[in-house]
Amino acid sequence: MPRKRITAAVAVLVLATGCGAADMTEQASPYANAQGARTVTLSVQSWVGAQANVAVAQYLLEHELGYRVDTVQVDEVPAWDALSQGRVDAILEDWGHPEQEQRYVEDKNTIAPGGDLGVTGHIGWFVPTYFAKKHPDVTDWKNLDKYAGLLRTAESGGKGQLMDGSPSYVTNDKALVRNLDLDYQVVFAGSEAAQITQIKQFAKEKKPFLTYWYTPQWLFEKVPMTEVRLPPYKEGCDADPAKVDCAYPVTELQKYLNADFEKNGGDAAEFLKNFNWTTEDQNQVSLMIAEQKMRPDEAAKKWVDSHESVWEKWLP
């Protein structure tokens, strides 16, 4: 690489893939909140898009800016606690946590906004496109009960199955099923990886399924899916988790930094605030990691080598 200036430092990479994230009281990074040291600790969530963000950020921090980087996996809400306490320095992909934003950004001032990631996220309910083409009315939630029998599984207790990933993800699905009076049971696969495996198996056998899913996600390139229209999202319709009866919002995914790190993190903090890429960029790296089975650092290097005009703007 023509811009390479410093030999890569040794990095510790922890990427769990199953359900249940690490206990941060046991896994706090030795680099986190290290005053004056050229070290950074990044929180990495269990889904592959978040891993793609961190892989590229880590690669550039190490190879272009000479930092040592540690990554720690932790569930979405506990990650905010870890960030506030300085056990991690940054979260690179947040899908919206109003309570944590109010507590840590507005009230305690221990977390600082890091700006837009550049990726727009949306959670929804999806059916395979081959099923939607055969039964076009299934894409309206009011018709879902008509197909509950076809979507029944051994795990759904005589009801149609609505498949979710990890219980730790942002999900209103149990409340939605209850409040929309649907004949469905939410069944958790346990993780994104387990959910992908199940979706691919259903698709291979051309079976119908209904699943919680989200964009951006590389799997749409392998298994085309069509969204089911839920009642329209309106501001505040999801304010009470027990009473949610509307669709998920479209979310501009955000980055957050520990407040001390944001002020004193030097080039690393500036770089992470500048980090901004597209859905297409993220999906390219995600596909390499999840489908082509490349190591995250290998996928990051491949993307970095062919996108210098993008990432050079992030450097301080």
Write the layout of secondary structure elements.
Layout: H1 24-27, E1 39-44, H2 48-63, E2 68-73, H3 76-84, E3 90-94, H4 98-107, E4 111-128, H5 129-134, E5 160-164, H6 173-179, E6 184-188, H7 192-204, E7 210-215, E8 225-228, E9 250-258, H8 259-264, H9 266-274, H10 279-290, H11 296-305, H12 308-311
Parallel strand pairs: 1-2, 1-3, 5-6, 5-7
Antiparallel strand pairs: 3-9, 4-7, 4-8, 4-9
Description of the molecule:
The protein is an alpha/beta fold and 316 residues long. 34% of the residues lie in helices and 20% in strands. The chain is built from twelve helices and nine strands. The chain has helices at 24-27, 48-63, 76-84, 98-107, 129-134, 173-179, 192-204, 259-264, 266-274, 279-290, 296-305, 308-311; strands at residues 39-44, 68-73, 90-94, 111-128, 160-164, 184-188, 210-215, 225-228, 250-258. Helix 10 (279-290) crosses helix 11. It is globular, with a radius of gyration of 20 Å. Mean pLDDT is 89; it is low at 1-31.
What attributes characterize this protein structure?
316 residues; alpha/beta; nine-stranded mixed sheet; globular; disordered N terminus
Q: What portion of residues belong to β-strands?
A: 15-25%
- Unreliable parts: 1-31
Alpha-carbon distance between the two ends: 18 Å
Number of helices: 12
Please state the CA-atom Rg, rounded to the nearest Å.
Answer: 20 Å
* C-alpha geometry: globular
